[in-house]
């Protein structure tokens, strides 16, 4: 599968704007459930997975439950707007079927915003090439996925590890 990141005007990169954009993207996630088995909406499930990066606990649910007991509210409610907090296992079960490509539009928005605001300049080297580490992106994939960003090209080496470089660099 190939996904191209078109040049678009960046939205403001505030936490609130990014969360709004993220909600739109995850609102398009497929939901494999049928019938009445919908205790948690897909947005709460995806936000629960994302918000674990903001905690320092092995169990997201346990951390948020302890915070609610101690302070009356949790980060999941105040920062991410979760209505209900699904268990770690439920999050994994529901998101395992969501292809990573569903998040490409969010990557595009963040990448374009950072680039437009000049925040990526510090990562340019070797004649202005933008260096982006993509380690681990092929580890659990069953199909070859290719994506392109304007001004950035990629190629696979003999070891099948992606190498990113600007389009102006030698091939």
Keywords:
171 residues; 2 domains; two-stranded parallel ribbon; two-stranded antiparallel sheet; 6 helices; 35% helix; globular
Descriptive account of the structure:
- This protein is α+β, with helices and mostly antiparallel strands and 171 residues long.
- It is 35% helix and 12% strand.
- A hairpin with a 5-residue loop joins strand 5 and strand 6.
Short description:
The protein has 171 residues and is an alpha+beta fold. The protein folds into 2 domains: 1-8 and 99-171, no CATH class; 30-97, no CATH class. 35% of the residues lie in helices and 12% in strands.
Spatial extent as radius of gyration: 19 Å
- Tally of helical runs: 6
Q: What structural class results from the helix and strand content?
A: alpha+beta
How is the biggest beta sheet arranged? 2 strands, parallel
Shape: globular
Q: Which whole number gives the mean pLDDT?
A: 75
> What percent of the residues sit in helical stretches (DSSP H or I)?
25-40%
């Amino acid at each position: 599968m190939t996904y191209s990141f078109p040049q678009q005007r960046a939205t403001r990169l505030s936490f609130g704007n990014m969360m709004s954009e993220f909600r739109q993207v995850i609102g398009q996630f497929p939901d494999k459930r049928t019938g009445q088995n919908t205790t948690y909406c897909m947005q709460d499930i995806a936000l629960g997975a994302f918000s674990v990066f903001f905690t320092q606990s092995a169990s997201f649910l346990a951390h948020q439950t302890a915070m609610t007991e101690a302070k009356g509210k949790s980060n999941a409610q105040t920062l991410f707007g979760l209505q209900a907090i699904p268990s770690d296992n439920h999050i994994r079960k529901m998101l395992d079927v969501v292809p990573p490509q569903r998040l490409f539009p969010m990557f595009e928005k963040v990448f374009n915003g950072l680039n437009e605001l000049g925040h990526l300049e510090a990562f340019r080297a070797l004649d202005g090439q933008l260096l982006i580490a993509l380690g681990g992106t092929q580890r659990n994939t069953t199909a070859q996925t290719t994506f392109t960003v304007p001004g950035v090209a990629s190629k696979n080496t003999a070891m099948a590890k992606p190498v990113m470089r600007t389009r102006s660099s030698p091939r």
